[in-house]
Every structure is written in structure tokens, then in C-alpha cells.
């Protein structure tokens, strides 16, 4: 595999590394069942596609520039693919040019965060407040008004268009 300058600058090198190694296998709060929506591992495997399970339950990362939700520009709401919790409004979505859907603010009470020390760095992990599913990470390089970039795996979400 070759990694070019664009891949490194877009954060794709981390995404490729994460997708190559797959799930981190971490056992933390997002897998402990401390959430309103709870299923056994077998039930999650029945409910989710293998890729959704790898990301939401195994803390995986999709390859950059592979999610159709990165280009989604209609009005609507992004929901958790695991439990349908409303996560982000399309009004807060922006093009971060990283290859993952990005938002500057979640909906009130929609997400939780934890410290992620995988891949040899410290990041803030974002998870669904209802089911604990891993969504992505939040960084302090986003636009105003928050200055935050919620970098979210498209596989971890569904999109519900606004009613006309």
C-alpha cells in the first residue's frame, strides 16, 4: 500500500491504519451496557451489518472518502445506525475535507465522550448517548461557532431527510 501526501494531510493515513487493524477490541463504557438501549453481542450482530458492528461495537474506523453521507447535503437529521437516536442536524454539517462526515455541534443530549488512547495518541472519542455505539472522534479544529469538528463514521449513521 502507498500513502501519498493527500492521504496523510486528510487524516487518511490514520483511517487506513485503523481500517487495516480493524476493531481495537477495547472493553470500555461503550461496551459495558450502561446505556438505555442494550443488546447482547449476538443481538447486536443480528441487528447490524458486519461493517456497522465493526465500527459501532468494535470502535473501528471506515476508510476516508467511502461514505455517501460525507456528500449528503439535504436538510434532515443524522441518526445512530444502531438505535436510531437523533445525533446531528444537517444544519451543523460542514465539509472538513477529511473524508468523513463532519459536524460542529451534536443535538442536545445525543452523544457522550470518552478518552481514546488507541493508535499511540490521545483523542476524544464520541459515542451514542443511547446505545454507546462508537461514532468517531471530536477535534478542536472546526469552524465557528464552536470551533469543534465531530468527525463521524458514515457507517455509524443513517440519514433521515426533512419532510417538505
Describe the structure.
There is one protein chain. The protein is of the alpha+beta class and 164 residues long. It contains four helices and nine strands. It has a single domain (5-161), classed as Metal Binding Protein, Guanine Nucleotide Exchange Factor, Chain A (Beta Complex). It has helices at residues 5-9, 12-21, 41-47, 50-57, and strands spanning 76-80, 86-89, 93-94, 102-103, 111-116, 123-128, 134-139, 149-152, 157-161. A hairpin with a 5-residue loop joins β6 and β7 (134-139). The longest helix has 10 residues, at 12-21. The chain is globular, with a radius of gyration of 15 Å. The model is unreliable at 1-30 (pLDDT under 50).
Question: Measured on Cα atoms, how large is the radius of gyration?
Answer: 15 Å
CATH fold annotation: Metal Binding Protein, Guanine Nucleotide Exchange Factor, Chain A
Overall shape: globular
| CATH top level class name | Mainly Beta
Helix content: 10-25%
Q: Average pLDDT, to the nearest integer?
A: 85
Architecture, according to CATH? Beta Complex
At the fourth CATH level, what is the homologous superfamily?
Answer: Peptide methionine sulfoxide reductase
Amino acid at each position: 500500500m502507498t500513502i501519498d501526501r493527500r492521504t496523510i494531510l486528510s487524516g487518511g493515513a490514520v483511517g487506513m491504519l485503523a481500517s487495516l487493524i480493524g476493531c481495537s477490541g477495547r472493553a470500555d463504557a461503550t461496551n459495558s451496557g450502561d446505556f438505555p438501549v442494550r443488546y447482547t453481542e449476538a443481538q447486536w450482530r443480528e441487528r447490524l451489518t458486519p461493517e456497522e458492528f465493526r465500527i459501532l461495537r468494535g470502535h473501528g474506523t471506515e476508510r476516508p472518502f467511502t461514505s455517501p453521507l460525507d456528500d449528503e447535503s439535504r436538510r434532515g437529521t443524522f441518526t445512530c445506525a444502531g438505535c436510531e437516536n437523533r445525533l446531528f442536524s444537517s444544519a451543523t454539517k460542514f465539509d472538513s475535507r477529511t473524508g468523513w462526515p463532519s459536524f460542529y455541534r451534536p443535538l442536545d443530549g445525543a452523544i457522550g465522550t470518552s478518552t481514546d488512547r488507541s493508535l499511540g495518541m490521545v483523542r476524544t472519542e464520541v459515542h451514542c448517548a443511547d446505545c454507546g455505539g462508537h461514532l468517531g472522534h471530536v477535534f478542536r479544529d472546526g469552524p465557528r461557532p464552536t470551533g469543534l469538528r465531530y468527525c463521524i463514521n458514515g457507517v455509524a449513521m443513517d440519514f433521515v431527510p426533512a419532510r417538505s
